[in-house]
Write a structure and sequence with these properties.
Helices cover 55% and strands 17% of the residues.
Length: 147
């Protein structure tokens, strides 16, 4: 479950006000068995499932936004550079950009804090930091530190 990504009272309110009654009827038999074994109400299980799904959707949206920004950075480098995947590593609280770079595949780690700042505040400083990490990750350091 990714409930830690629900960050505002408004988001919690939307989740909690959703139609639990209709959702309870949509539980699978396995989910009902799990609820019974854990000793929780089915409506509580539905609420937790919805919270997890909502958190997952937010995470996916953040990844898509980050990917669009990286694609723009790579576009300036030419057609030999292509974003293949944007992966979330929960255990390390970071994003990993998988980039085809000329003759290799580069995995570029991006701290969650930087990704959040890039997506949410869009400050020039944060965008520049992202650009530098991408350039370094694909072996184009000369564009960061011109000689």
């Amino acid at each position: 479950m990714v409930s830690s990504f629900v960050q505002s009272v408004g988001e919690w309110k939307r989740i909690l006000e959703a139609d639990d009654a209709g959702s309870v009827s949509q539980l699978t038999e396995d989910e009902r068995v799990v609820a019974k074994k854990l000793g929780v109400q089915e409506s509580e299980l539905v609420s937790k499932i919805k919270t997890g799904q909502y958190g997952q959707l937010r995470l996916q949206a953040k990844g898509l936004d980050l990917g669009e920004r990286v694609t723009a950075i790579l576009g300036a480098l030419g057609s030999k550079y292509r974003l293949v995947a944007v992966l979330w590593e929960q255990s390390k609280a970071r994003w990993v950009l998988r980039i085809e770079a000329a003759d290799k595949v580069a995995n570029v780690p991006i701290a969650a804090e930087l990704a959040d700042d890039v997506v949410e505040t869009e400050s020039e400083q944060d965008l520049e930091r992202l650009k530098n990490l991408v350039l370094f990750g694909v072996g184009r350091q000369e564009l960061i530190f011109p000689r």
